[in-house]
């Protein structure tokens, strides 16, 4: 960085930041040097505003933005309000997101709508189109009682943020979520073809899914099963080499389907989960 030019007789200056990130002294109204005190100190420019990756009122959590709205509304009205802000009712993809959202709801002290609801076929789906590969139902839930098709998160501490299906017309607080992430493609099983971004090998299709948060082994398997697949199993040296090549560009550890015991939780230390990826086939 070359220094800025200075006049021949400079008495005072103030600190400025140049485009390259350096700090230098910039001339301000050059005047002859004088021993008399200035009548008024030079004013510093206001600091640049701090930009948040999220809209006002939202809190950033990994690649998404969340907001707890305490003004009660029905599930449909809550969703419409979230969509008006460029998002949707919150979908929860894994245990870490669940813990974050539950913390906000517990502080709000009022049950809050999330984006899950029962579909016509009786299954549950997220309103933003994400597959359901994580749930946190409360005891005896979902109860599937007639008229109870929308899902809220408990605010009472004794329920630990678990989920409850209830009447969609009830007025509740709600969680909005804005994200740039796109739902993963769902492969069609058994048709002999692979969807875009899935790689064929033998009679199977494989993909490396790269979550920014990383996944624990159980969450990774839930994700794969939501796509009607499973974590990859390896049955030959050739298949091992294929998977190694497939993961070469990812340059990270990935989960496969091998476990010590089917009854084992197999969840590693959460502090070491970040950065783990998983293969599915």
UniProtKB/TrEMBL annotation:
Top-level lineage group: Eukaryota
C-type lectin domain sequence ranges: 61-177, 201-259
Keywords associated with the record: Disulfide bond
Gene3D superfamilies associated with the record: Mannose-Binding Protein A, subunit A (3.10.100.10)
Annotated InterPro entries: C-type_lectin-like, C-type_lectin-like/link_sf, C-type_lectin/snaclec_domain, C-type_lectin_CS, CTDL_fold
Pfam families: Lectin_C
Ranges annotated as biased composition (Pro residues): 38-52
SMART domains in the cross-refs: CLECT
Positions with biased composition (Basic and acidic residues): 9-19
Region: Disordered, residue numbers: 1-53
SUPFAM superfamilies: C-type lectin-like
Protein name as catalogued: (Atlantic silverside) hypothetical protein
């Amino acid at each position: 960085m070359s220094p800025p030019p200075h006049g021949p007789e400079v008495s005072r200056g103030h600190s400025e930041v140049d485009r390259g990130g350096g700090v230098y002294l910039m001339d301000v109204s050059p005047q002859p040097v004088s021993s008399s005190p200035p009548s008024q100190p030079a004013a510093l420019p206001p600091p640049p505003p701090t930009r948040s990756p999220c809209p006002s009122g939202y809190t950033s959590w990994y690649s998404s933005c969340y907001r707890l709205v305490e003004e009660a509304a029905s599930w449909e009205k809550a969703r419409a309000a979230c969509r008006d802000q460029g998002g949707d009712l919150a979908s929860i993809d894994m245990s870490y997101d669940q813990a974050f959202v539950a913390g906000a709801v517990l502080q709000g002290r009022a049950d809050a709508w999330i984006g899950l609801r029962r579909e016509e076929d009786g299954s549950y789906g997220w309103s933003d189109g994400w597959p359901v590969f994580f749930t946190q139902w409360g005891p005896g839930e979902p109860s599937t009682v007639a008229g109870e098709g929308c899902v809220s998160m408990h605010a009472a501490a004794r329920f630990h943020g678990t989920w409850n299906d209830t009447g969609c017309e009830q007025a509740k607080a709600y969680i909005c979520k804005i994200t740039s992430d796109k739902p993963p493609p769902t492969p069609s099983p058994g048709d002999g073809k692979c969807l875009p971004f899935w790689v064929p090998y033998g009679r199977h299709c494989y993909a490396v899914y790269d979550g920014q948060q990383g996944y624990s082994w159980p969450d990774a398997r839930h994700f794969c099963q939501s796509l009607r697949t499973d974590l990859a199993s390896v049955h030959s040296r050739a298949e091992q080499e294929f998977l190694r090549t497939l993961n070469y560009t990812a340059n990270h550890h990935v989960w496969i389907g091998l476990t010590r015991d089917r009854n084992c939780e197999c969840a590693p230390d959460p502090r070491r989960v970040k950065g783990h990826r998983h293969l599915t086939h």
